[in-house]
Specification:
The protein folds into three domains: 3-135, Response regulator (Rossmann fold), CATH 3.40.50.2300; 155-225, no CATH class; 236-414, Orthogonal Bundle (Hypothetical protein af1432). Helix 1 links the parallel strand 1 and strand 2. It has helices at 23-32, 48-57, 74-84, 99-106, 119-135, 139-147, 155-166, 172-180, 183-194, 207-225, 239-263, 267-279, 283-290, 292-305, 309-317, 321-331, 336-344, 358-373, 385-390, 397-414; strands at residues 14-19, 40-45, 62-65, 89-94, 111-114. By secondary structure, the chain is α/β, with parallel strands linked by helices. The two termini are 33 Å apart.
Length: 421
């Protein structure tokens, strides 16, 4: 089981509701998951109507539904669950679904798991999400995050994406470059590919590759038929912070990639470090997009009290961008090493790993880039030298500092409204 999920969850039983009109499928799930009965309380029903009755009677942490069911299909059921029980995690488990059905399910569905499903994958998916729910204990914040259908893109980037997609000369290569520069677009495309909405799920770390796999027709359908791709429209007060966030994110993603290249030639680690650097602050546009007035309150609190914005987030939301970002990316099926890096990049010693990983690269890149950015040293995230010693990298800081300094300068020079969120 991946590192993130090895840690002990709380003793409370997670309640999971399986919905499928085929009794044989439900019996197969019972047999498959029999060994998890001490960890999960599971119930099995044969229709969306019965599922809603069960949910009305008592809360469930997760609903896993087939797509093709009579009277009420899986997408319709999960839309009702999202509306009536917004904190509940929503997963489609289906073997057959046409494009219209997929587009219908994109909004209310966190993950699309194809049948027949590998038992270990299904168990790991459920266990990982259960663990992440425990890391975001505030019920109101779980409701906010669980309702998110898209991470908003900065409007200039969104408009460029739309213009290219709708032009006669639309190119997946050019669209891939735009998507790979934007937090919101990257997160959505990777959710769709890694969770298997449009075909066999794949472990993809490169947003540009996700665009190629989806193709122009699917992208156009997503743009015009769903709320999966939306611009950020929270007001002018966010313009300057978003510009700074964009520069920081670009620098961290570049630095994390170069650090990983120097320490580990494995493409998955390098690509994971780059993606984790891009997404490590994805919780900011989520919080600012869903709760704009409260996020401005947090910004004002940080300025007034001379505390870090993450401390202000904790005070206002009872959660930080890292808690929120890791939870949403975990719900969306983003690869586990990336979710680990988002969750732990400020506290890496709490992760069970003992080797260089994308977490290492993002932890160091974030701290050292902040040192280049900040005029208030007390608000800079420190490098955890004890963690680096534990994984045998304590002597690399001087080299990494040079990489991060160069990345920050490159980000300052290269950043434009369409460079990165």
């Amino acid at each position: 089981m991946p590192i993130l999920w090895r840690q002990r969850t709380r003793n409370d039983m997670k309640r999971i509701l399986f919905v499928d009109d085929d009794r044989r499928v439900l019996d197969g799930l019972r047999r498959m998951l029999r060994g998890m009965r001490r960890q999960w309380e599971m119930e099995f029903v044969q229709s969306g109507t019965h599922a809603l009755e069960h949910l009305a009677a008592s809360p469930f942490d997760m609903v896993i539904a087939d797509m093709r069911m009579p009277s009420m299909d899986g997408a319709e059921l999960l839309h009702e669950v999202m509306t009536r029980h917004p904190a509940t995690v929503r997963i489609i488990l289906s073997g057959h679904c046409d494009r219209a059905g997929v587009l219908k399910s994109v909004g209310p569905t966190h993950q699309f798991v194809t049948k027949p499903c590998d038992p270990d994958r299904l168990k790991a998916t459920i266990a990982g999400i259960c663990w992440l729910r425990d890391q975001l204990p505030d019920e109101r914040m779980r409701q906010v995050v669980s309702r998110v259908q898209s991470v908003p893109s900065w409007r200039p980037t969104y408009e460029e994406f739309v213009a290219v997609l709708e032009s006669p000369a639309a190119s997946v290569n050019r669209l891939g470059r735009i998507v790979a520069s934007d937090v919101g677009l990257s997160a959505k495309m990777l959710q769709l590919v890694n969770s298997g909405f449009f075909g066999t799920p794949q472990s993809v770390y490169d947003p540009a590759r996700a665009v190629t796999l989806l193709g122009l027709d699917a992208l156009r359908a997503l743009l015009h038929s769903t709320d999966a791709i939306l611009p950020f429209d929270a007001g002018e007060e966010y313009d300057s912070p978003l510009h700074l966030l964009g520069t920081h994110t670009l620098a961290v993603s570049m630095a994390a990639r170069e650090i990983a290249k120097g320490e580990n030639g494995d493409a998955m680690v390098v690509n994971g470090a780059h993606l984790a650097g891009l997404l490590h602050d994805v919780g900011i546009p989520v919080l600012a997009g869903e709760c704009p007035e409260r996020y401005i309150e947090a910004m004002h609190l940080a300025s007034r009290e001379q505390i870090s914005l993450k401390e202000a987030e904790k005070a206002v939301f009872k959660a930080t961008r890292d808690d929120v970002g890791a939870y949403l990316m975990g719900l969306w099926g983003i690869p586990e090493p990336v979710v680990t890096a988002i969750a732990f990049h400020l506290r890496p010693r709490q992760c069970a790993g003992h080797a260089f990983s994308p977490l290492t690269a993002v932890h160091v890149a974030n701290a050292l880039v902040e040192q280049n950015m900040s005029r208030l040293p007390g608000l800079v995230s420190p490098v955890d030298t004890d963690y680096l010693a534990r994984i045998g990298c304590a002597g690399r800081l001087e080299v990494w500092a040079d990489i991060c300094r160069d990345a920050w300068q490159a980000a300052l020079a290269a950043y434009t409204p369409s460079a990165v969120y």
